[in-house]
């Protein structure tokens, strides 16, 4: 298969592309290499992928419809794996328009591109943040997700609604994957694992909220990638899946484990 992967230089995108290339698929990658965190990290991720002759890279923004349409017409991918998004819940409080451009406009561009180029399967990244303040555990895909508590979560819920609409109106097969907290090699430096580890190594205090009384579902990136590829290998008409470890961990226990290591 030839797969178009957006957010190719991102944490999950680069791991997904690596796995696809290793099994013999062709990968077309799009990324704008923004400076939300050090772009050098993104360049390092891409270097691993460029060793394969089956890999093509385009440095452009997914919100640029003309550029994306041109790429898709040239490459003619079989499926789209849309992983690009502006991440970070706290960052959205200070930079709301960035989230609308990337997560709303960008997703619309990808949906429209799929529609007009006869691409039948659209797999996209949602987020466990859509569950908002839901206190029922474990989360289920059947739970209500109409009360997000961050702009980031709002954009991800909007993505799910947009995908649903394109399935109903145009018959596009859409699969949404609600990622939980992902960790692993080449992770984002703003992720809890790396922030906690850095502070511990530097003997600096760790900032925690709610007195540390919270739980997170930590999922290794290879497991997330396995779920993404399994979805790419199917053609679900319209589905949303939770993609996580299904085992929440107390935050303070998580920090203690890092300290012991």
From TrEMBL:
<feature type="domain" description="NAD-dependent epimerase/dehydratase">
    <location>
        <begin position="3"/>
        <end position="244"/>
    </location>
</feature>
<protein>
    <submittedName>
        <fullName>Protein CapI</fullName>
    </submittedName>
</protein>
<keyword id="KW-0520">NAD</keyword>
<dbReference type="InterPro" id="IPR036291">
    <property type="entry name" value="NAD(P)-bd_dom_sf"/>
</dbReference>
<dbReference type="Pfam" id="PF01370">
    <property type="entry name" value="Epimerase"/>
</dbReference>
<dbReference type="InterPro" id="IPR001509">
    <property type="entry name" value="Epimerase_deHydtase"/>
</dbReference>
């Amino acid at each position: 298969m030839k797969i178009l992967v957006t957010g190719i230089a991102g944490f999950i995108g680069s791991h997904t592309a690596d796995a696809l290339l290793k099994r013999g698929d062709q990968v077309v990658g799009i990324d704008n290499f923004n400076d939300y965190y050090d772009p050098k990290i993104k360049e390092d991720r891409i270097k691993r992928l460029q060793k394969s002759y089956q890999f093509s890279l385009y440095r452009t923004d997914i919100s640029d419809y003309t550029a994306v349409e041109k790429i898709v017409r040239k490459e003619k991918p079989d499926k789209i794996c849309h992983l690009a998004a502006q991440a970070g819940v706290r960052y959205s409080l200070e930079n709301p328009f960035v989230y609308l451009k990337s997560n709303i406009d960008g997703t619309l561009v990808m949906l429209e591109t799929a529609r007009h180029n006869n691409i039948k399967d659209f797999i996209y990244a949602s987020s466990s943040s859509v569950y908002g303040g839901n206190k029922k555990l474990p989360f289920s895909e059947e739970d209500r997700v109409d009360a997000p508590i961050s702009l980031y979560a709002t954009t991800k819920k909007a993505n799910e609604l947009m995908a649903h609409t394109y399935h109903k109106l145009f018959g596009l097969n859409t699969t949404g994957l609600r990622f939980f907290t992902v960790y692993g090699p080449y992770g984002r430096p703003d992720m809890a694992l790396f922030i906690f580890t850095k502070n511990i190594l530097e003997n600096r205090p760790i900032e925690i909220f709610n007195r540390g009384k919270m739980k997170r579902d930590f999922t290794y990136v290879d497991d997330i990638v396995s779920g993404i590829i399994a979805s790419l290998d199917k053609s679900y008409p319209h589905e949303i899946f939770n993609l996580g470890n299904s085992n929440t961990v107390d935050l303070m226990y998580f920090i203690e484990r890092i300290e012991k290591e």
